[in-house]
Amino acid sequence: MSTARVNLLPHRAERRKRAKQHFAIVSAGTAVVGLMIIGLVHSYYAERIATQQGRNQFLKGEIAKLDTEIAEIDKLKDEIRALLARKQVIETLQADRAQTVHLLDELVKQMPEGVYLKSLSQKGMRIQLIGYAQSNARVSTLMRNIEASRWLGSPELIEVKAGSVEKKRVSEFNLFMSLKREPTAPAAAPAAAAKKG
Asked: CATH no. for residue 149?
């Protein structure tokens, strides 16, 4: 009995060829899908980056506006400070002018007889008096008057020495006193009010 021989080589070659084609198609499909996924991911992140860059740009613009407003506010603050400083200077000058009037008026009132001023100088609220008196007692009276004054106070005697004016013996004195910004009420006023009560 004879057996028939079948040549399987062409069939195997064909199957191998189909397998290669299938692998190539699958590989190409996988590559295409991979590229699509990569493209989608890239597009997604590119859009996110663009959105964030837009937000950053918006924030930069708003920060620039705020910086400009802050600079304007600082400028206004400087102008306000300068105006307040000028106002303070003007108020001080007005107060000092009024105090000079009070000083001269009060000196005339508190100067006892027999006391003459040689010079008067002011530095801030501190006044220096240099003058002549007929006696040391007159200088003491002047200091008591200054102490009791509403506008003057804190008399401080620096020196009293014997001198001569027109061949007359006098006491030459040098004393300091303070000028008050806010005059105090006379001491007798509270006592009188208490008696009335």
From this structure: 3.30.1360
| Neighbouring-strand partners of residue 3 | none
Q: 33-37, 49-53, 122-126: lowest mean pLDDT where?
A: 122-126
Task: Give yes or no for a contact between 160 and 136, defined as CB atoms under 8 angstroms apart.
Answer: yes
* DSSP structure class, residue 181: S
Q: Does 121 have pLDDT greater than 90?
A: no
Residue keyed to tokens 């005339």? 108
What is the C-alpha to C-alpha distance for residues 54 and 60, in angstroms, rounded to an integer? 10
Q: Same domain, yes or no, for 125 and 56?
A: no
130 CB-near residues (< 8 Å, 6+ apart)? 117, 118, 119, 120, 172, 173, 174
3-state SS class at 93:
helix
Angle subtended at Cα 101 by Cα 97 and Cα 102, rounded to the nearest 5 degrees: 115
Transcribe 123-148 into DSSP letters.
ETTEEEEEEEESSHHHHHHHHHHHHH
pTM of the model: 0.45
Q: Are residues 138 and 79 in the same domain?
A: no
Strands, E assignment, the chain: 115-123, 126-133, 152-165, 168-179
